[in-house]
Amino acid sequence: MVDSASATAHPTVPLRPMTVPAQQAADRCRTFHDVMAQRRTVRDYATDPIPDGVLEWAVRTAATAPSGAHVQPWRFVVVTDPERKRRLREAAEAEEREFYGRRASEEWLAALAPIGTDWHKPFLEDAPAVIVVFEVHKGPDTPRPYYVKESVGIAVGLLLASLHQAGLATLTHTPSPMRFLNEVCERPAEERAAYVIPVGYPAPGARVPDLLRKPLEDVLVRL
Q1: How confident is the model over 12-37, as pLDDT tens digits?
Q2: pLDDT tens for residues 65-81?
């Protein structure tokens, strides 16, 4: 029996589960895996425009992510203005020069060496869109979030998957510190940048590092 006071304070609706026949479940997972296994971080972008509606639907999908106390502590700022992208790149490269030149340990630089990255970030201007993802913390008009980094991280995972499904390439860039992004994106102090994600089609002839993912037996533990 449902307590009427509890039902009033916390209203519910019937669950509408997605029904998948048991014999199709593994195949559905395998098909999704085969698409996502082709996803790679891309640093060379074509100037071709992104089709209308794609970014909006991708952000809608990201915003379906679970979040602590259902506060939904995320903001997705889509930057397409060339001048603003230029400012973003200049500020990010200034922080990256400090990182590669002074702040990063030798161990960290050695780990990055096979990927071939450095402080140059032309993709921040070349990609037709850059999505800056902000964590939304407590402010005059926003509630206190819970498990904010975990919540935003899950949302970004869904965002990357959705954009890949649309045939677009992405990159997750995390300059540190990121406070310059509040000014570039005109966001209030309670919002804290977490990810900078260029989005677009790969440039013709784009190449990526020859990396291998860990096999299942290295990442799956059954108890």
Answers
A1: 999 999 999 999 999 999 999 999 99
A2: 999 999 999 999 999 99
What distance in Å separates the CA atoms of residue 180 and residue 188, rounded to the nearest whole number? 12
**DSSP letters of 32-79?**
HHHHHTT--B---B--PPPPTTHHHHHHHHHTTS--BTT---EEEEEE
Helices 148-165 + 22-36 axis angle, to 10: 90
In the block, residue with structure tokens 């890949």: 164
Q: Which of 70, 74, 78, 179 is nearest to 137 (CA)?
A: 74
Cα separations (Å) of 185 from 72, 93, 166, 198, 200?
Answer: 20, 16, 25, 15, 20
In whole angstroms, give the CA distance from residue 142 to residue 48: 37
| Pairs from 184-187 (Cβ < 8 Å, separation ≥ 24) | 184/79, 184/84, 184/87, 184/88, 184/91, 184/132, 185/77, 185/79, 185/84, 185/132, 185/134, 187/75, 187/77, 187/134
Residue 140 is given by DSSP the state T
